[in-house]
Amino acid sequence: MYDLILKLLFKLNAETSHELTLDLLGAAKRLGLLGLFAPKVADQPVKLLGLTFPNSVGLAAGLDKNGDYIDALGSLGFGFIEIGTITPRPQDGNPKPRLFRLPEHNAIINRMGFNNKGVDHLVTQVKKSKYKGVLGINIGKNFDTAVEDADRDYEICLEKVYEHADYVTVNISSPNTPGLRTLQFGDSLKSLLSTLKKAQLRLQEQHGKYTPILVKIAPDMDQDETIMVANSLLESEMDGVIATNTTLDRDAVAGHEFAGEAGGLSGAPVHERSDQVIKWLSQALNGKMPIIGVGGILDGASAATKVEAGAALVQVYSGFIYKGPKLIGDANEAIAAVKN
Asked: What pLDDT is attached to residue 217?
């Protein structure tokens, strides 16, 4: 059934089909029909970050930027879902078209630009949700906030989502917001992480709840750069790292009609690069901080390699678009086999 639906959706503009799919999922949830699309996923609990994840396979940020479809997505069998990226103020994102499918490569290019309805809208949606699973909230900066002022944007978002999230992800690795990736390095990174750590401890006391903070990094770093980032995360006492975001590299899709489109490439082409960054992180972190692996998971085997590389959990996005809910169970089974 999913293959048939996919063929129909792929006849539409990529962003239109994205929005329609979410609307259909929301309607199916309200009508009690999600069981037609969501095979049962076996319980394989994972204790991490002070939380219990029902299974190892989560939904990456980006699919539900505003938290409008939490209950529907939470009913598909994911071990956890992550919503966002959200910014302090609503913003339209980049001009359309900004989303491109490369089905020959099981890949997607996007330059959405953190289009979202703002953090206040997301918090309202989270409060309305009936989802009881593990919920991550991904935060970023507004496009017109100068890099030197970015710390405050992240702090605003953290303050507003803190009590409503099971964990918060700091997105400093999207290639679609000017200057954002410079926050991954040097004094900019140290300043941001110091600001967020102080805010986390203050909010912990205020709310009587410790919400872990994870940092999502890009795949376009060499080993030395990855190690420097890992050391900064440890020094700043962050709680975890998500590896990786989309890539700017186009070697794997050279010659495709959309290869020259600006934006981040996700899906199968980023799989090996993501695995390599996870290996470097795992070596540098030496078990002191958990890694969530994301990038190019399209089947059980590609999920298992993330765990073999050092990830404790995984997330899917492009693979979920191409393969549907069946991917969740397949990935979960493969990971369980590797862990056992």
From this structure: 97
